[in-house]
């Protein structure tokens, strides 16, 4: 199945991102992997696959860092399209396959005592509060970023 067919159900007017995290994936240094893909109008316009810079102490920490990395990519793509005069792109939509992470991202405060995780968490929360970013659940079987982790 082609990429256009797989993404035809994505909403118009959104830069849509999928993000995934694989907690402590590297068996030598236990750093987590981040994966993300970004679509506009059903077309893949970006992807990200990298090891996190620091060791996450929990699944939640790796999930928040992954959400922040992909939200930052969405932010960059949004402004890139705006700069070239693209019309009709209004908001960002981030698909997450961890319902506990979604609840915490939409909540009022971080449970993290780690400053670097808390900063990323606040970045995503601020974009949710100001209406730029919407976060939705997607089942793991439908997570388009799964291949990246």
Q: Would you write up a description of this structure?
A:
With 149 residues, this protein is α/β, with parallel strands linked by helices. The protein has one domain: 2-Layer Sandwich (Nucleotidyltransferase, domain 5). Helix content is 35%, strand content 25%. Helix 2 (59-83) packs across helix 4. The longest helix has 25 residues, at 59-83. GO terms for molecular function: RNA-directed DNA polymerase activity. Keywords: Nucleotidyltransferase, RNA-directed DNA polymerase, Transferase. It comes from Plasmopara halstedii.
Task: List the topology elements.
Elements: H1 3-6, E1 14-22, E2 33-40, E3 43-51, H2 59-83, E4 91-96, H3 99-106, H4 115-129, E5 133-137
Parallel strand pairs: 1-4, 4-5
Antiparallel strand pairs: 1-2, 2-3
Characteristic key phrases:
alpha/beta, Nucleotidyltransferase, domain 5, 4 helices, disordered N terminus, transferase, FOG: Transposon-encoded proteins with TYA, reverse transcriptase, integrase domains in various combinations, RNA-directed DNA polymerase activity, RNA-directed DNA polymerase, nucleotidyltransferase
| The CATH homology group name | Ribonuclease H-like superfamily/Ribonuclease H
Run of helices and strands: HEEEHEHHE
* Residues in helices, as a percent range: 25-40%
Question: What count of structural domains?
Answer: 1
Rounded Rg = 15 Å
Question: What proportion of the residues form beta strands (DSSP E)?
Answer: 15-25%
Count helical runs.
Answer: 4
Give the CATH topology. Nucleotidyltransferase, domain 5
Please give the number of β-strands.
5
